[in-house]
Amino acid sequence: MGIESNKAVVRRVFDEVFNQGKLEVVEEIYAADYVDHSAPPGFPPGLGSLKQSVALFRTAFPDLKITIEDMLAEGDKVAVRLTYHGTHLGEFMGIPPTGKSLSEAGIAVDLLKDGKIVEHWVLRDDMSLMQQLGMIP
Prior knowledge:
The chain is an alpha+beta fold. The protein has one domain: Roll (Nuclear Transport Factor 2, Chain: A), CATH 3.10.450. It is built from 4 helices and 5 strands, in the order ααβαββββα. It has a 5-stranded mixed β-sheet with strand order 1-5-4-3-2. The N and C termini lie far apart (46 Å).
């Protein structure tokens, strides 16, 4: 697969899976042996981790919108700079709904093979998220 094809696959992750909650496309986009190097502790390995992450964010922030600010690709890797936007209307990692709006920055890197994501790394500004939710000063 070429760089543009790989970028299109990664775009689908944010447009379809996270923003629209279409979990039925996960098997089209991710390899069966997918590894999430950034999964929270206690999450199941593989595609179960991804589906649990999507459910966690979409339940806590039902109006979740992830915007791709920049996308770079080289070889079999695609990197994106993201902005997460949403309103905290459901429980999030034990935090009851606050009704507060949030905006959080992040960077994700995906490794693709044969047109599917096989590995994933993400860095988010979770400190800022907790501050916006009023959990820390």
